[in-house]
Design brief:
6-stranded mixed β-sheet, 30 strands, alpha+beta, elongated
């Protein structure tokens, strides 16, 4: 049910005085409260609205606060009475709400029961006002709880504010209110949340209370999308994930790309769709039902984790930190992905991976991989060693003059046990810049590109983290061989 502030004021003027009774606000602090409405996190909106409502609520009688999901991920027992019901608690409640950091699940039924117990509902008149943006996720039955509280309480009432809930989800949780003589309110923005709390916390509400319905207006965006790494992690923010693509697929199977950000709000025709997210190493789909006059909130859970790795070269002076090749290979599937970034900070599907860092962007002998276990919803940090050494070539004429690069072509070959060349690792193409490679024994092959086509093979050893320098001399006599002066 939606309503504006004008309707609230009209109703409040007609309400009767309320006898003093204890009231507990039960505030949802599950991970989904990091979702956004009109570009603002729901928890931020809730903090502002609770703070604005407190002065009027405190006049009514003893007031307290219960929250859930704000301490630990994935823990259904994460329920806490932050402020016991009492007089003069407005300041303590405001401070507690401001400090809430959503993290976990939605044990809303047990949280309502905890609030009822804190007020001694079996002996005292008590009211609970639940603000939730999601359904029960811990296996309890809110409808059964409502019936039990109504039976055991002296005068127990629960009001429920569905903050950004669809009509279908709102109907599933509204029984907490209807079974106890309370009211269920829909709130899809800050103004509607403020109006709902103003009525539910500060005024007397009965089933006969009439709230004027405003004309239905189509929202600017009717599909709000958030992406999470795991069911218990907060929604990702823009810029936190790369290689992400979102598609909206019609019932007939037509797919349309709608963007590349983990936080999105779009306008779509009413109907049944499938929302799909593709990212590095994974893909996930969820069904969505979009309505013309309602806002559908969809959450895509990637089952992914963040990898944050740095490369540690033994020869930092030889490695350009801005040109690194990262190879990340899924051990189970064999799928390999490449990243060309100074540091590896990417999102990958949960699983076991081999991670390798290679200087430059050419295919060279790779060092042994580091095994990394990526856990959904977690950030895995670490370092990858780069034991590469360097080889610098200086090609000169017999007189000592430096020759242009194109006079001699170089190639580095792996060495057999007998010292002969096995296979080419990389060609230098005449450059005198340092070449990085893994430590070990190699054969340097140099070839004169002139008419004589002189060629030499020189065994060399590249030491870890060290720079080896060779000078190759081209004699003026074309019959004379190339020479190496170390």
């Amino acid at each position: 049910m939606r309503f504006g502030f004008g309707a609230v004021l009209a109703v409040c003027g007609a309400l009767s005085a309320q006898a003093e009774e204890a009231t507990m606000i039960v505030l949802d602090a599950s991970g989904s409260m990091w979702g956004q409405i009109d570009g603002v996190n729901k928890i931020v909106i809730a903090r502002d609205v609770v703070r604005e409502t407190l002065p009027a609520a405190a006049v009514r009688g003893p007031l307290g606060l219960v929250s859930y999901g704000h301490n630990r991920k994935g823990d259904c027992s994460d329920i806490e009475v932050l402020v016991p019901p009492g007089a003069g608690t407005a300041g303590a409640i405001a401070a507690s709400v401001d400090a809430i950091n959503p993290k976990g699940k939605t044990p809303l039924s047990d949280a309502v029961q905890r609030a009822a117990q804190a007020m001694g509902h079996e002996e005292n008149k008590a009211t609970v006002v639940l603000v939730t943006d999601g359904l029960e996720t811990c296996g309890a039955d809110p409808c059964a709880l409502a019936r039990a509280l109504e039976t055991s309480g002296v005068d127990f009432t629960a009001h429920v504010v569905g903050f950004g809930l669809s009509k279908k989800d709102g109907a599933a949780v509204s029984c907490l209110a209807s079974e106890t003589g309370g009211r269920y309110f829909e709130a899809d923005n800050q103004g509607e949340l403020a109006a709902a709390l103003s009525l539910a916390v500060a005024q007397e509400i009965t089933q006969e209370t009439v709230i004027e319905e405003p004309p239905q207006v189509e929202p600017k965006h009717n599909l709000q999308i958030n992406v999470q790494l795991s069911p218990d992690s907060p929604p990702l923010e823009n810029g936190e994930i790369d290689k992400l693509a979102l598609d909206l697929i019609t019932a007939e199977g037509r797919a349309k790309n709608i963007g590349y950000s983990p936080v999105m709000a779009i306008k779509a025709e009413a109907g049944s769709y499938t929302l799909r997210a593709k990212y590095a190493g994974g893909e996930v789909e969820v069904p969505v039902e979009i309505e013309q006059f309602d806002i559908t909130h969809a959450t895509l859970v990637l089952d992914a984790g963040v990898v944050n790795f740095k490369a540690v070269p033994l020869a930092p002076d030889l490695v350009r930190p801005d040109i690194l090749s990262w190879r990340v290979t899924n051990v189970e599937t064999g799928a390999r992905q490449e990243r060309y970034v100074p540091e590896l900070r990417s999102v990958f599907r949960a699983g076991t991976y081999e991670v390798i860092a290679i200087p430059g962007r050419k295919d060279r002998i790779a060092p042994p991989p580091q095994i990394v276990e990526i856990v959904a919803g977690e950030v895995t940090t670490g370092t990858v060693d780069m034991p590469h050494g360097g080889l610098r070539i200086d090609n000169v004429s017999e007189t000592g003059a430096r020759l242009p690069d194109h006079f001699i072509r170089f190639a580095l070959w792996s060495a057999k046990d007998d010292g002969s060349a096995d296979r080419m690792i990389v060609g230098l193409n005449g450059t005198r810049d340092a070449l990085l490679s893994l430590p070990g024994d190699y054969v340097l092959v140099a070839e004169d590109w002139g008419i004589a086509r002189r060629k030499l093979s020189q065994p060399i050893t590249i030491a870890p983290g060290a720079l080896t320098t060779l000078r190759i001399v081209m004699p003026a006599d074309e019959a004379a061989p190339l020479q190496v002066v170390e």
